[in-house]
């Protein structure tokens, strides 16, 4: 194979701006300019937090700020990649050494150069004070001459001092403060990158060291971090300080009440920690599709996966499928490139656009559409027994010269003899995701819709490029311990709450609900071990006894409850007047909220979601064992994320305006309610009030359930 041939399979890089020689295609320049001016103009100590998820462009934004400062004659920009030095005992040592080296800038002149040299010497003394046992010259070429007598005296002093930190750098720190106060020193702007990739203890230690040692006039720190991850690091530190682990009480905890008080203290500390250190919080700007067009067009040109004529329609779908995250978009296109290469090597006929559509429609919001495409329907105006698939019907409607709205209206006018809800559900997804219609309207898009063989081939190729693409072997039923098959329940007292949220759409408007009866609910989602012990099979895609069961329909979940009820009664563990069933939608939200009134069970801050949920940002594309994240206030796990959960109710287009008592949803319908979000969901779909719908027969590897125990009359 020639070099030119191999270039067809070259993958895209996601290196930041400047490092990759890319232009600023995401429009960060204005933000960078403002931050650069602020760094120069602010004379007081300043710490700026650039917050964003991994891959959102934090490093690119920081690089642009540094680029503007590099040419300033009285500024010493310092780039410090914390993660590269996390194996060092104290990150403050290489950080201070990096600052000292930056002060050797040959571009400084006159008194600025003299002051820079003086300040550099003081910083080197601090490096020494902080690391008596460290080989100083290995850090950025910093050289500190120490006599044997100096080393011995230093070691003796360390041995005597109980508070090591104070004795190690007290004098040097005083000299540093005096040096800075005299003025004339360069403006030192330190960019700390990848701090959220360090071990929790190291990350927190460095932040505290910056505040204690270098919070002085003339110093500006710009921290590029995922705030949620840093909060988790702080939580870990405080949990250890209080003799606790993962938010659970240790053996020495005296009372549950005391445990809750400690939990509240830890929670408050986590929320407030960065706010006490960072003077200004700058979230990485979230780009709209229109603002990402140039970026995606460049990537598509490099990836060579879409014809030029289809690029316009592809941009919106790619932006959406990548959650408007630059790294997420690169990962998506790289998956297409890899799958394309494998199919080419195997000599199979395919079209890259089909791969792109397949991978882009793996998101939660497309589940109903994708599951419907191969469902055969009988139309009222067809001969008896002559079925047609939903995919073929949609392809036919999109082949006509009409607008998207006209195509969807034509589909709604089709009279279906059986399963009309399947077609209606598919139309609803298309209506909510108009950016997909442009690609589906093309010849290749309509081929993907109508040909199940193409979709199956593309699905196999898509799965082969994901970490979870090759399921683990099914565990033999005999290896499942009985202890794993028992469901832990949590008693729930009656109460009132406000159900719904203004933030979750017109179908979730807030209204008052009272639950007047006691009931119990599963502390976790039903696991595969539990499901297999009752049903004798495991339909899940991701195999593991402690993983939540998924790929189950509402009908199958209801059947599980029936069989579990019969088995528990037979064993004498369940009274005749009690039964297992799926929770009503009101019961589910009441339990999820656990008396909270915020968007999530813990607060409104979605950046904390990773502490409580496996979702799109942290799941690595798969489910995880139940009960590993933080529980809500009532001891319930995974109420947000991991898998969507079936509820008992038929889906209602909107809630009743009046207050309700023990609501059970509409008396009939064609779709059931799903709650909680999944491992593949964006944060907004994991909110306490967020609701979606699904057909009772639909099965998908994003969907599972949990159970409740109630009186049979309920």
Describe the secondary structure blueprint for this structure.
Layout: H1 3-7, H2 29-41, E1 46-51, H3 58-69, E2 75-81, H4 92-102, H5 110-130, H6 148-160, H7 164-181, E3 187-193, H8 200-213, E4 219-225, H9 227-241, H10 256-272, E5 280-283, H11 289-303, H12 311-321, H13 326-345, H14 352-360, H15 367-372, E6 376-378, E7 387-389, H16 390-398, H17 404-412, H18 420-432, H19 434-441, H20 443-450, H21 452-463, H22 482-485, E8 489-492, E9 495-499, E10 511-515, E11 519-522, H23 528-535, H24 554-570, E12 578-581, H25 585-593, E13 644-650, E14 660-661, E15 672-675, E16 691-694, E17 703-704, E18 708-711
Parallel strand pairs: 1-4, 1-5, 2-3, 3-4, 10-14, 13-17
Antiparallel strand pairs: 6-7, 8-11, 9-10, 11-18, 12-18, 13-15, 15-16
Helix pairs in contact: 2-3, 4-5, 5-7, 8-9, 9-10, 11-12, 11-13, 12-14, 12-19, 13-14, 14-21, 16-17, 16-20, 17-18, 19-20
Folded structure, characterized:
The strands form 5 sheets. Strands 2-3-4-1-5 form a 5-stranded parallel β-sheet, sandwiched between helices. The chain has a 4-stranded antiparallel β-sheet with strand order 8-11-18-12. The chain is α/β, with parallel strands linked by helices and 714 residues long. It is 42% helix and 11% strand. It is globular and about 90 Å long. The relative contact order is 0.08. Residues 1-6, 132-169, 244-260 and 467-485 have low confidence and may be disordered. It contains 25 helices and 18 strands. The protein starts with a helix and ends with a strand.
């Amino acid at each position: 194979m020639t070099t030119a041939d191999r270039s067809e399979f070259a993958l895209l890089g996601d290196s930041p701006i400047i490092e990759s020689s890319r232009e600023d295609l995401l429009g960060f320049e204005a933000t960078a300019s403002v931050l650069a001016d602020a760094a120069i103009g602010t004379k007081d100590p300043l710490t700026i937090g650039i917050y964003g998820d991994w891959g959102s462009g934090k490093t690119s934004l920081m690089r642009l700020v540094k680029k503007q400062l590099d040419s300033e004659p009285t500024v010493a920009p310092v780039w410090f990649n914390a993660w590269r030095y996390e194996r060092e005992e104290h990150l403050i040592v290489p950080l201070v050494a990096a600052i000292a080296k930056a002060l050797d800038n040959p571009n400084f002149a006159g008194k600025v150069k003299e002051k820079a040299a003086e300040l550099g010497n003081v910083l080197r003394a601090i490096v020494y004070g902080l690391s008596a046992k460290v080989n100083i010259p290995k850090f950025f070429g910093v050289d500190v001459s120490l006599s044997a007598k100096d080393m011995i005296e230093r070691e003796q002093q360390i041995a005597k001092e109980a508070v090591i930190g104070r004795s190690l750098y007290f004098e040097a720190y005083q000299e540093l403060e005096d040096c800075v106060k005299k003025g004339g020193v360069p403006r030192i702007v330190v960019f700390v990158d990848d701090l959220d990739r360090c071990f929790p203890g190291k990350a927190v230690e460095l932040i505290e060291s910056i505040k204690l040692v270098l919070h002085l006039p003339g110093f500006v720190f710009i921290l590029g971090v995922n705030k949620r991850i840093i909060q988790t690091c702080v939580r870990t530190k405080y949990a250890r300080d209080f003799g606790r682990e993962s938010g659970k009480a240790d053996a020495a905890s005296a009372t549950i009440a005391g445990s809750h008080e400690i939990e509240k203290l830890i929670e408050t500390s986590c929320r407030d920690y960065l706010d006490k250190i960072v003077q200004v919080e700058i979230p990485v700007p979230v780009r709209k599709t229109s603002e990402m067009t140039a970026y995606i067009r460049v990537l598509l040109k490099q990836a060579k996966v879409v014809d030029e004529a289809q690029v316009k329609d592809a941009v919106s779908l790619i932006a959406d499928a990548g959650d408007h995250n630059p790294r997420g978009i690169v990962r998506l296109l790289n998956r297409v490139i890899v799958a394309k290469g494998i199919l080419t090597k195997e000599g199979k006929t395919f079209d890259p656009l089909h791969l792109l559509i397949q991978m882009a429609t793996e998101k939660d919001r497309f589940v109903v559409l994708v599951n419907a495409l191969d469902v055969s329907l009988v139309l009222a105006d067809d001969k008896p027994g002559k079925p047609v698939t939903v995919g073929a019907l949609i392809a036919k409607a999109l082949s006509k010269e009409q607008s998207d709205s006209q195509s969807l209206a034509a589909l709604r006018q089709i009279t279906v003899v059986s399963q009309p809800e399947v077609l209606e559900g598919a139309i609803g997804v298309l209506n909510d995701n108009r950016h997909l219609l442009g690609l589906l309207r093309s010849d290749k898009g309509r081929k993907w819709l109508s040909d199940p063989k193409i979709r199956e081939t593309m699905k196999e190729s898509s799965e082969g490029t994901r970490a979870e693409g090759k399921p683990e072997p099914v565990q033999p039923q005999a290896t499942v311990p009985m202890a794993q098959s028992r469901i832990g329940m949590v008693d729930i007292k009656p109460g009132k709450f406000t159900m719904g949220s203004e933030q979750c759409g017109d179908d979730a408007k807030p209204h008052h609900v009272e639950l007047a009866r006691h009931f119990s609910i599963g502390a976790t989602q039903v696991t595969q071990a539990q499901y297999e012990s009752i049903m004798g099979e495991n339909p899940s895609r991701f195999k593991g006894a402690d993983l939540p069961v998924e790929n189950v329909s509402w009908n199958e979940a209801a059947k599980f409850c029936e069989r579990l009820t019969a088995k528990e009664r037979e064993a004498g563990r369940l009274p005749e007047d009690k039964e297992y069933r799926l929770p009503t939608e009101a019961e589910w939200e009441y339990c999820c909220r656990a008396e909270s009134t915020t968007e999530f069970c813990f607060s409104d801050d979605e950046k904390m979601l990773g502490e409580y949920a496996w979702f799109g940002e942290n799941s690595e594309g798969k489910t995880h064992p139940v009960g590993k994240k933080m529980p809500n206030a009532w001891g319930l796990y995974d109420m947000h994320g991991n898998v969507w959960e079936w509820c008992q109710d038929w889906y209602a287009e909107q809630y009743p305006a009046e207050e309700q008592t023990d609501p059970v949803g509409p008396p009939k319908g064609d779709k059931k309610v799903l709650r909680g979000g999944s491992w593949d969901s964006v944060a907004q779909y994991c909110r306490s009030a967020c609701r979606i719908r699904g057909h009772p027969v639909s099965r998908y590897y994003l969907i599972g359930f949990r159970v409740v125990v109630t009186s049979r009359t309920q």
